[in-house]
Structure formats: C-alpha cells, structure tokens
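COMPLEX REQUEST
Ligand: guanosine-5'-triphosphate
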Amino acid sequence: MTRSWHEVFKGVDEPAGAAEAAEDAVGEEKEKSGGFFKRLKAGLAKSRKNMQQHMSTVMFDKLDAELWEQLEETLIFADCGVDSTVAIVDRMEKEAQEGLIRTREQFYERLEAALVDIFAAGDYRIDVSHHPSVILVVGVNGTGKTTTIGKIAWHLKREGMSVVLAAADTFRAAAIEQLGEWGERVGCPVIRQERGSDPGAVVYDAISAARSRDADVVIVDTAGRLHTQVPLMEELKKIHRVIGKQIEGAPHETLLSVDATTGQNGLTQARLFSEAVDVSGVVLTKLDGTAKGGIAVAISHELDIPIKLIGVGEQLEDLRPFDAGDFARALFED
Ligand SMILES: Nc1nc2c(ncn2[C@@H]2O[C@H](COP(=O)(O)OP(=O)(O)OP(=O)(O)O)[C@@H](O)[C@H]2O)c(=O)[nH]1
Ligand SMILES: [Mg+2]
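STATUS: Structure written out below.
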C-alpha cells in the first residue's frame, strides 16, 4: 500500500515518541494516502482511459486468442515495451488455463498482480544513511530535476534531516536562481558559484560545506543534457568522480529524472544515462501528461532499475514514493 516518505528514506530514524504518537501518525498517513491515491488516479486518468478504450470491446466470457491479442495490443500501445508485454500476456494465459481467470474482476486482479511482479525488484528506498549522504540528480533538459530536488529536500527537512543543495547546473544563471529559490523555501543552504564555472568545483565546495556544517544530505543538481551530447555526458562522469574522490562510495544515490511524456525516447535516455553513470533509481515525472504510463513498466523491467519516485503533477504533494501495487490499481480500477 502507499508508501510514506518516511519509509522511502533509508537511514531516517523512526519517529521518536510514545506509541500513541505513532498511532496518530499512522492515522494521518492513512488519510493522506487515501488522498494521494485519488491524486494518483487523477494523474493517471489519461493512461487509464487509453487502456479502458482498448479493452472495452473485450468479452470476458470467452478466454480466447482474441482476448490475449487485445491485451497485448493494449499493453504495447501503453508503452509497456515488448519484453514486459510478452511476459505479462504469457503469465495471464497460463493462469487462465489453470482456471484462475474466469471473470472480468479476476482478469483485472491477475493483470494487476502481473504488473506488480514485472517491476524491477531493486531497493525502492533512497539511501540517506551515510553522513553526509550524496544524492546526484541527472537527466535530460526539462525532465524535472530541479523541482524534484526541491521536493526531496522539503521532505528530508520534515524528517529532521539537514540538507545542503549544490547548484552544479552552472549552465544557465536561471538554473542557479531556481535552486536558490527552493533553498529559501525549504530552508537549506545552496552552494553556488558563478554561471559557467566548473560543476565539479561546485560539488567539491558543497561536500566541504556539508562536512563543516555537519549536514546529513547533499543533493546535487546538474545541467540537463541530451544523452547524445558526448562532452556533456563526459562532464557528468567527471562530477561523479569528483564526488567519489571526496567520499568513498558516493554518490550514494544517482537518480535519473525521466519525463514520462517522452515515451520510448525516455527509455533510450534511461539506457544511455545508466551506461554513463551508475543510475540507482528513476524519478518518472509528468505521468499526468501522458496516456502511455506503461513506460514506467518498460523502464523498470527492461533496464532493471527501480522507479523510486513518480510525479503526477506540479504541486509539492504530486511527487510521491512509487508503489507498484498502487500504480497498477490506479491504471485499471474504475
Ligand atoms: N505536469 C507536471 N509537470 C511537472 C512534473 N514534474 C515537473 N514538472 C514541471 O516540469 C518543468 C521542468 O522542471 P525542472 O525541475 O525545471 O526541470 P529540469 O530537469 O531541472 O530542467 P533543466 O534544468 O532545464 O534541465 C517545471 O515547470 C515543473 O513544474 C510532473 O510530475 N507533472
Ligand atoms: Mg534544472
């Protein structure tokens, strides 16, 4: 069921206080998660309609070849990718033969279960258990890196962690400003240099600043780049190396932000970025803007990278920890 932010941060202490307080928190979280599920459903409305339209003519009293073809087409059309689609349809056919699928309800139940299982099994948490932990955020222009960083920082502060932001997107002055605004909003320092300065130097400063301030987490913003821009991809590797030289084993997380509306191109981006730097998780943004939300399945399954966060809108609460069960339910439930 819906994950809270607290659960998603590996290394954040359990909330202090009596059992009573914990119960209150659970109640509050339940209320919020109910609210969130509604938002998730609203955010996935285009994808859900797309699926429903494709499946609308299916009669569930006959589990024949036509049904499986239609399911296949629906999944492919939703951008789930060929591998995942074949795996899901095969499994469904087998379950039907075993008598597990006889009704429409059972069909969707089993489809949800198949979808949940197809997502990569990796750790869904964001590792902030080191001191300081370093989270590097990478991705193509405009995919949502900076806003994602602001939102993660906001949630970390709520969990009582101290955060330093590194404005290593030195490409545009506006990018430094944008991160600066998030820093003010969240209440955390933003380490920056002039536009055009070496991103590696900014990262170096930010880690030093985090050490001297005894901060818990450093989040590094980077300039958007196309996966085809070789010098920029090299620069990214350099940033990665600078971090690793200062702190062994860092960055502890490398999050790749992918815009869901870019479909199969998003999958290609993810593949090439993960070849350049070791991507530990995907943040899939703008799911609200696409009818092909199945791209989440393709990225996770084909690249074997967990989706850690999803964005279903521009509000602070629209960025959420990813939960495969909720995702599947929101796609198929009326
Ligand atoms: N609808 C929608 N918009 C989003 C979502 N996530 C981010 N955005 C918007 O996408 C736009 C780009 O976000 P940024 O955070 O500036 O993207 P970026 O990757 O930092 O961009 P560059 O710095 O130019 O590379 C902003 O207007 C965000 O509000 C989402 O889940 N849904
Ligand atoms: Mg940015």
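REMARKS: The pocket of guanosine-5'-triphosphate (ligand 1) is lined by residues 139, 141-147, 169, 175, 224, 257, 285-286, 288-289, 311-314, 318 (CB under 6 Å). The chain is about 50% helix and 15% strand.
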